[in-house]
Amino acid sequence: MRLSAFPLTELDPFTEDQLSKIFPEEPDIQSFWRDAIVQGSKIWVAMFNGRYLAAAIMGPVNQGTVEISVITVREVTRKRGVGRFLLEQMEQNALEAKAKEICILASSEDAQQFLNHCGYQEQMQIFRKKLALTTQG
Predict the structure, then answer these.
(1) pLDDT (tens digit, 9 = 90+) per residue, 18-43?
(2) 88 within domain boundaries
(3) Three-state DSSP class for 4?
(4) Domain CATH for 16
(5) Rounded distance, CA 47 to CA 38, Å?
(6) In three state form, how does the secondary structure of 45-69 look?
(7) Which domain covers residue 94, as residue numbers?
(8) What is the 3-state secondary structure (H, E, C) of 20-43?
(9) Does 13 reside within a domain?
């Protein structure tokens, strides 16, 4: 069987089980995926031999730009071209939808290296800080 990549049409029990294996550290990942679908995004997966090896969330085209908010490959299948294949299929889909640019937020150094290797250029870093709520008197 060959590697394939496609957007999911539903989140059935099989899909939820497979996604939980891609994201083992996230126990409530299913609600995250459902929210993404409700907001108009597509969940893309890479599949080989009946198993999902990678997953990503791709938003709709907005002013010529597509945002990919998550792209993750199962730990045991990293560095084998699965992530690149998934990203290439999503890029092709974005081109067909008339997108001119893809924007991806990479939160880890591994992700940044992967995206650089795939031809993406870093243009801006996003920094976040959680603020403690205080009552001023």
Answers:
(1) 988 888 877 677 777 888 888 889 99
(2) yes
(3) strand
(4) 3.40.630.30
(5) 23
(6) EEEECCEEEEEEEECCCECCEEEEE
(7) 4-117
(8) HHHCCCCCCHHHHHHHHHHCCCEE
(9) yes
